[in-house]
Design goal:
Elements (H helix, E strand, L loop, with lengths): L5 H17 L6 H4 L4 H27 L4 H22 L5 H4 L2 H27 L2 H8 L2 H12 L6 H18 L3
Helix pairs in contact: 4-6, 7-9
């Protein structure tokens, strides 16, 4: 499929080049600026959104003709290998052993939640259109706002409620599209 479509190969090269730039401290200008904390999280958030969008399309193509749980396992293995390579490349000695047990506990719970989310997401992609599944999956943003207020004591402002309402409305509109 990729050999016959040079445009797709080009897109994959752009994604890989973006990854290389993102993880190369010497080439990332916003990392060198002392005042760039806000820009840093915005840029990383936008990159996350771009890669999440690419993930949905790539996963939809990849899950066709395969059990969704097996497809999730393959993807998870790639993520596992990729993240360990990045972790070792940026490793700070003693960081692993210095993590408190509470940190480990919540990271394990987070990993379990991620695994369950991915299993459900891949099954949904297998059964539905990526352009309908992904927006419903992004309802997680609304859940984060509520959970952050409940468990992290973040303020639940009218702006956050309005934004979450727009996300919910958008997900409903896209999911119900005929």
């Amino acid at each position: 499929m990729l050999q016959r479509d040079p445009e797709r190969v080009g897109r994959i090269r752009v994604i890989l080049a973006t990854l290389l730039v993102a993880f190369s401290p010497a080439r990332v200008p916003w990392r060198r600026k002392a005042h760039s904390t806000t820009m840093n999280w915005i840029v990383w958030s936008l990159l996350s959104a771009v890669f999440a969008g690419a993930t949905a399309v790539l996963a939809k193509i990849g899950v066709s003709g395969m059990d969704s749980n097996l497809a999730t396992a393959i993807r998870t293995s790639v993520v596992l290998l990729f993240t360990w390579v990045i972790a070792f490349a940026t490793y700070k000695p003693g960081a692993l052993s210095a993590a408190p047990s509470r940190t480990w506990l919540f990271l394990v719970f987070s990993g379990l939640a991620t695994g369950l989310s991915w299993l459900c997401y891949f099954r949904a992609l297998q059964l539905g259109q990526a352009s309908r599944v992904a927006p419903v999956d992004k309802l997680s943003v609304a859940f984060v706002i509520v959970f952050a207020a409940m468990f992290l004591e973040e303020r639940l402002t009218s702006t956050k409620l309005f934004g979450a309402s727009l996300i919910v409305a958008g997900a409903i509109v896209l999911a119900l599209e005929r």
